[in-house]
Amino acid sequence: MPFSQLGLSTPLLNAIADLAYVEPTEIQKQAIPVVLSGKDIIAAAQTGTGKTASFVLPLLERLSAAENDEERNLRGKRVRALILTPTRELAIQVEASIAQYGKYINISSMAMYGGTEIEPQKQRLIWGIDILVATPGRLLDMAHQRAVHFDQLETFVLDEADRMLDMGFIDDINKIIERLPEQRQNLLFSATISDDVRALAKRTIHNASEISIAKNSASKPKIAQWLVTVDKTNKSALLSYLIKEQAWQQALIFIETKHGAAKLVSQLEKRGIKAESIHSGRTQAIREQILNDFKAGEINFLVATGIAARGIDIGELSRVVNYDLPDKVDDYIHRIGRTGRAGKSGEAVSFVAKDNFRNLCAIESHLDQVIERREFEAFPVKKIVPVSILNYVPKNKRS
Ligand code: AMP
Q1: CA of 258 to the centre of ligand 1 (A)
Q2: 115-126 per-position pLDDT tens digit
Q3: Directed axis angle between helix 26-36 and helix 51-67, to 10°?
Q4: Which of 91, 147, 157, 387 could potentially form a cystine with 187 if both were Cys, beta carbons 3.0 to 4.6 Å apart?
Q5: To the nearest whole percent, how much of the chain has pLDDT over 70?
Q6: Domains and CATH numbers, the chain
Q7: How many angstroms is it from 20 CA to the middle of ligand 1?
Q8: Nearest CA to ligand 1 atom 14
Q9: pLDDT tens track for 205-261
Q10: Quick check: 31 and 41 in contact, CB under 8 A?
Q11: CA 225, CA 349: separation in Å to the nearest integer?
Q12: What is the C-alpha to C-alpha distance for residues 191 and 247, in angstroms, rounded to an integer?
C-alpha cells in the first residue's frame, strides 16, 4: 500500500517522498487512517517501527486542514496539540520529525524540557504554538507559572507510556490530564501494554481503537541477537577483542552505572579504541554534543547508561551491546530496538555473566526464543551460565 492511499495531502506526501520512504510501516498503515478520522487510539508499538510518523503525520494533516478554517485563531500561550514524552532526547527527536514531515505546511512546533533555562521557552510560547512536545516536569512548571494554557487543545499524545510510568511520572501525567479540556482526541503509544498502562489508558481514554503490531509482523526490525557468556572480570577485554576481531565500525554500548561508563571508556582507550560516554553526570549540552558526534560518525563507540540513552534515535545504528544485561525485559526490548530500524538490519549483542542468569531466563521466555550463543576461544568462561528455562516465570509474577 502506498502512502498516497492513506488520506494524507500533497505537502505531507512530498515531505515523505523527500525522505525516500517507500511505503508505510505496519503501524502507519493501521494508525494513520484512524487518527485522521478523529478517533482515539491505544497502540502497542516499539521504537523503530515508525510509530512517530504514525501519529505526527495525521496530526499535521488535521491541524493544517483546520488552518484554512476561519475558526482557527490560536491565542497566546495556547497549544493545539500536546505530545508528552518521557525524556528530553525523545522530545527533541519528535519535534525534529514534526519539522521534517511538516516542512511544506505552516504549523509551528516546539520541544520543551527541563535542564535548560525556562525563560526562552516561555518567550516562544507567547504567541501560541500549534504542537508542543514536552516532558512532564517542565510542562507542569510552565502550567503553574501560567505560561501555557490548554483551553484550545485538540489532541493529546502520550508517547512511550510504559517508559513514563517506569520513570515515575504517573502523578505528573495525572496532573497534566486534569488541566486538559474534556473534549479532545487522545493517542497513547507504548512499547508494551502492561496492566499499569492499561489502567492509565482507562482513566484517560474512552472508546479507543486498539492497535497492536503483531510480534512477527513483516515490519519488525531485522535484528540479529546473539550473546556471549563471560566472567564479569573479563568484560572490557572481551569488548575490545570483539571490536578489533570483528572490525566493528560502530556500537552503542549499554552499561549500568555512570562510574562503570567512565571506567569502560578509559579501559577501551588504553587498548587503542576511542570511545565516549553519556550518563546523568554529564551536562545536557555535552550529552547532546556527544550524541550528535556519534550520529555524524565522528565517535564510533558510545557507552551509555540506560537512563541517558532513553529515547535515543539514531537512524543508521548498526549495533547495540548490552555490556550489562538489563534487569527488566522491557529495557532489553527497548535497547535492541535502537538498531534494525524501519527494516534495516542490525545486531544486538549481550554479555551475560552467571549473575545475569535469571534476567536471561526472563528475557528469553518473554521472547519465546533462546538467543544464539557464540563462544570465543580467547575467552573461556570459568563461571558457566546454564541454558535458559524458557517457561521461567519471574518471582513477582508467580501465582
Ligand atoms: P520510530 O519508530 O518512530 O522511532 O522510527 C524509526 C525510524 O524509521 C526513524 O528513523 C524514521 O525516520 C524511520 N521511518 C519511519 N517511517 C518510515 C517508513 N515508512 N519507511 C522508512 N523509514 C521510516
Answers
A1: 30
A2: 899 999 999 999
A3: 30
A4: 157
A5: 90
A6: 3-212 (3.40.50.300), 223-397 (3.40.50.300)
A7: 11
A8: 50
A9: 877 788 876 544 434 557 889 999 999 999 999 999 999 999 999 999 999 999 999
A10: yes
A11: 6
A12: 32
